[in-house]
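Module 6 notes. Inverse folding takes a fixed backbone as the condition and produces residue identities as the prediction. Think of it as a translation problem where the source language is geometry and the target language is the twenty amino acids. Below is one complete input and output pair. Work through it position by position during the lab.
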């Protein structure tokens, strides 16, 4: 699914619930990120270490070794908000995540156009040495988001 961005429309009350979670301090992993599983993702027990991040020659962030899935919100200004929201899921062949041009830039563009966007950083089933699977771990991250 490299190059594909999967989006899921949320209802207004779902967006309200997400904003409540943001205000309650469930943010982690840096400013603006929300851990999907604050007490650890199922199947990630015992997995340690930081995410691997490499930069392309153009400065694009490529992430791998994700053990703590998260969402990064991009919220529109109140005056331009349409009430719609999407989850943006960056591609990378389930080996890595191309976070900038398939995630963060898409999220910012959507927010600039009145749509709340939440960029998903999920566990990778086809990364070298990964024990994660699509149906058990990756899809669980998407469903939790």
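Target side of the pair, the amino acids:
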């Amino acid at each position: 699914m490299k190059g594909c961005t999967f989006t899921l429309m949320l209802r207004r009350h779902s967006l309200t619930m997400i904003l409540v979670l943001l205000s309650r301090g469930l943010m982690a992993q840096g400013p603006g990120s929300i851990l999907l599983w604050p007490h650890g993702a199922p199947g990630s027990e015992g997995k340690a270490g930081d995410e691997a991040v490499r930069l392309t020659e153009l400065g694009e962030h490529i992430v791998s070794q994700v053990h703590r899935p998260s969402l990064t919100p991009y919220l529109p200004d109140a005056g331009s908000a349409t009430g719609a929201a999407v989850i943006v899921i960056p591609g990378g062949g389930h080996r890595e995540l191309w976070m900038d041009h398939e995630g963060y830039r898409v999220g910012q563009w959507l927010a600039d156009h009145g749509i709340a966007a939440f960029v998903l950083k999920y566990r990778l089933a086809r990364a070298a040495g990964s024990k994660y699977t699509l149906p058990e771990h990756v899809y669980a991250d998407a469903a939790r988001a």
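Reference fact for the lab report: Residues 50 and 99 are 16 Å apart (CA to CA).
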